Design the sequence.
C-alpha cells in the first residue's frame, strides 16, 4: 500500500518558493529602475531647459501696443541671450528687459536708444545723440515727441517703445535708464503667428 507523503520539509518549501520570490524581486527591481530612469529624464530635461532659457534663447510674447508698428500684441518672438553674455547691447537693438521696482516676473520689450554716457534728446520725434541728429530707420508710429536732454548714466541704457505715444519706458521717472544687468536678451525674430513670421532688422 502506497503511503501518502507527509508535509514538505522547510527546505523543500524554501526551494519551491525561491523561483517565485526571485521573479517578484526581479520585477520590483525592474520597476524601480524604470521609475529612476524616468526621473532622470525629467531632471535632465529640466536642467537643459534652464540652461537654454538662461544662456541661449527664450520665447517671449508681446503684451500690449508699445512696440507698434514693429511688433504687434500677442506675437511670439525669440530672444537670444548668449550675445549679451559675450558683448553689450547696441543702439536700436530690440531687447527684453526687467524694470526696476517690479516683481511680476514679466519681461518688457523695448528698443535701445541711448548708450552709457550719451546725452539723449527727442525733438518733435527726431533723435539727437550728444547734439547730433541720428536717423531712426525702423517702423515707429507717427509722433512728435519731445524729451530731454537726458544723460544716460554709466553702465546703463536708455530704452523706448516704437510707439512713442503709448509706451512706459526710460522717459518715465519710475523706469529711467536701465542698468546693464536688467537687459536680458536680444529679440531676433517673430515666430508666431505663422503668417507673420519674420526676422527683425538689426
Sequence:
Amino acid at each position: 500500500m502506497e503511503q501518502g507523503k507527509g508535509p514538505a520539509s522547510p527546505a523543500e518549501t524554501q526551494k519551491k518558493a525561491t523561483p517565485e520570490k526571485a521573479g517578484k524581486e526581479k520585477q520590483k527591481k525592474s520597476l524601480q529602475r524604470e521609475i529612476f530612469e524616468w526621473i532622470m529624464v525629467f531632471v535632465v530635461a529640466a536642467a537643459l531647459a534652464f540652461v537654454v532659457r538662461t544662456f541661449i534663447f527664450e520665447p517671449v510674447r508681446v503684451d500690449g501696443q508699445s512696440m507698434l508698428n514693429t511688433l504687434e500684441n500677442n506675437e511670439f518672438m525669440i530672444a537670444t541671450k548668449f550675445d549679451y553674455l559675450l558683448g553689450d547691447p547696441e543702439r536700436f537693438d530690440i531687447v527684453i528687459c526687467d524694470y526696476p521696482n517690479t516683481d511680476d516676473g514679466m519681461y518688457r520689450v523695448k528698443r535701445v536708444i541711448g548708450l552709457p554716457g550719451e546725452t539723449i534728446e527727442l525733438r518733435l520725434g527726431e533723435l539727437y545723440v550728444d547734439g547730433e541728429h541720428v536717423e531712426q530707420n525702423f517702423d515707429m508710429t507717427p509722433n512728435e515727441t519731445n524729451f530731454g536732454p537726458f544723460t544716460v548714466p554709466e553702465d546703463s541704457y536708455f530704452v523706448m517703445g516704437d510707439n512713442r505715444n503709448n509706451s512706459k519706458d526710460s522717459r518715465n521717472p519710475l523706469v529711467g535708464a536701465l542698468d546693464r544687468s536688467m537687459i536680458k536678451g536680444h529679440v531676433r525674430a517673430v515666430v508666431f503667428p505663422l503668417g507673420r513670421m519674420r526676422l527683425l532688422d538689426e
